[in-house]
Amino acid sequence: MSRAGSTRVHLYGWLLLAPAAILLIAFTHYPTGATLVHSVFSEGTALRPSTFVGLENYGFMMGDEVFWRVVGNNFWFAVGTIPASIALALLMAVWVNGRLPARGLVRMAYFTPTILPMIAVANIWLFFYSPDIGLIDQVLRLFGASGHNWLGDPDTVLGCIIIMTIWKESGFFMIFYLAALQSLPPELEEAAKLEGAKRWYIFRRITFPLLMPTTLFVLINATINSFKLVDHLFILTKGGPDNASSLLLYYIYEVAFSFFEEAYAATLTAVLLAVLAVISIGQFAILDKRIHYR
Fold this sequence. Notes:
- This protein is mostly helical.
- The chain is built from 13 helices and no strands.
């Protein structure tokens, strides 16, 4: 190929890459860089422009009791949602992958919560959790139990949010597991059955190990999702009572748009990005080499 032809090929390649690169830089890399820069400046006003303060915002964050309360909430929220969502998604995928009557209808029922708007989901569960008139309290009343303010009690509000999140996300993760199950070679299961292996043994020794790449993908997505819940909290609890249900991204939203402390919100965002980066890199570094079979 001549030099002019090689240049033309490279030009075509860059032109094809340009739209995606422009969007990625404009909406991912530039906001990330701007956030990191903004986090080391003070909050500016019309009379007092922002100035460089170094790590002062980070020092204030370390002494912020609400921040540590929110971090603890987010930790337990992740612990409660990630394993349960993945396990339930895998169980549903195995169930609807078999010979099941009305299998298409069951798949649609499992996937429906995923396509519902977040605001609609929050309002549905708000009806469930409403004290006295809510569905849960009405069912409990049939058994002689008294009602409970599920979203107004600091001991139960985070658990209520966890249950709602598991219900919404499991159907989404099920799709990935279902696709992975349908791509597995059936000869492996048939050979195991000829050797007298039982269904549980086949799943534990053959099916689940081959699903580990999908599990890693789902695990990363579930981890990211556990740090980005805002809409549901805005409708259900607004982070209350007493920040018992406030999560990190919702706290960033409050700081930025309710308290108008953009510099501190940038600091919190930088910490959130760092946490997600460390978790994702750790998952890939530790798990990726253990789950791909060659």
